[in-house]
Amino acid sequence: MWAIVKNDTRLVPGILTGALGFWLCWLGNEMPRPTGWSSAPGLFPVIIGAGLVLMAIALLIERQRILRLEAQKRLEPKHETLLEAKMEEILAEPPMTRTAILRVIAITAVIGLYILALKFLQFEVATFAFLAMCMFAFGERSIIKILVISVLVTIGISMAFVYFLETLLPGNGSIVDSILYG
After folding, report:
1. Does this entry carry the keyword Membrane (predicted)?
2. Which of 2, 3, 73, 106 lies at a 20 to 30 A Cα distance from 63?
C-alpha cells in the first residue's frame, strides 16, 4: 500500500496537505462561535481545511490508482505502443522544473504578504495587490489585464460579502463597507 514509486509526487504532498487541512479544521473549531445566523470566525479555516483534506484524499486515491496500473504493467507482456513510449518519455521528466519551483516560492511569499497586509490595510487594497502579484507570478504580463481583473474580482468579492451576505471582511476595514454604510 505504501510502496515507494519512482517520481512519486503524491504521497508526501497528500500527507502534508491532509495534515494542514486537519490542523486548519482544528484551529477553526477552537475559535469563538457567535450564536444565531452569524458566521463564526472559524468558519473560513474549517472550509479551507475541509477542502485540503478532500484534496489530500484525492491525491492518495490517485497514487493508489497509479500503483495499481504499474503493478498491472509489470504483470502484462511488454508490447509498447507509440503513445505509451511518448507517455514514458513525458513521465520520466522531473515533476517540478526550476520555473515551477520559483512560482511556488513566489506564490507562498505573496500569500504570506497578503496575510500580513490584512493586518494593516483595508481588505480591498490588500486583495487587489494580492491578485495582481499572483497573476504576475503565474505569468500574466499584460498590465491592463492584471489591473482590470484585480479590480473587478476585488469589487465583486467585497460586494458579495459586505452587501449580499452582510458579513465583515478581514483586514483593517473595508472601502465598500464604508461607502455603503458610512
Report:
1. yes
2. 106
